[in-house]
Amino acid sequence: MSIQAPLPFFALLLAASMPIAHAEDLGVVGPTYDIAEPDLLDVIESRLKHMEKTGELARKQNEHRDHVVAAVEKPRPVDGLKATVTRRRFFIDPTWILDHDIRNADGAILFARGLRVNPLDHVSLRERLVFFDGRDRRQVAFAQQALASPEGGAKPILVAGEPLALMRSWKRRVFYDQGGSLSRRLGIRQVPAVVSQDGKRLRVDEVRP
Fold first, then answer.
1. Which residues make Cβ contacts (< 8 Å) with residue 111, sequence separation at least 6?
2. CB 92 within 8 A of CB 205
3. What's the pLDDT tens digit per position in 36-59?
4. Predicted TM-score of the model (pTM)
5. Strands 109-111 and 102-103
């Protein structure tokens, strides 16, 4: 990889390598002018005034607002998920192993490296998690049934679709797996999928509605 030095630096090197010569005043060859560059803030301000005068600024603001609203109303679908073709059930052991010592302010070890921790020993998954595609009417109906099931509470989690529209229709909170972080962590490849607690494990059921 080559590294290019700024032009003035090369000019200095060239001047240094040349033999010393006596300078001679040749007079003024042509008209001279002061070098002046417009102030950056003045340029920006002038540009904004021009955009405001022509209506371009208002148009840009409206475009940005519409883009933000569209991103909230209809987020990007989670990549890599498809409607369930073959039912699948699997279990996840959420146990993790501490890879470093955790010490208090005095340096005493609170939790030693190698400690095995299962979050389900301390908290429970109080509600089932129902992952579904809001663009599929069958999956939406399945999620509604799951929410009304006597088995207990459920938390609706969209992987595609329009969460705000669904919230207005259902009159309850609907969550969105933004970026697919939950789906990937739970190993979900098909939807709808229901996540529930099974003892000290999590059970994932990819089902066909």
1. 98, 101, 102
2. no
3. 556 767 777 787 788 888 887 677
4. 0.64
5. antiparallel
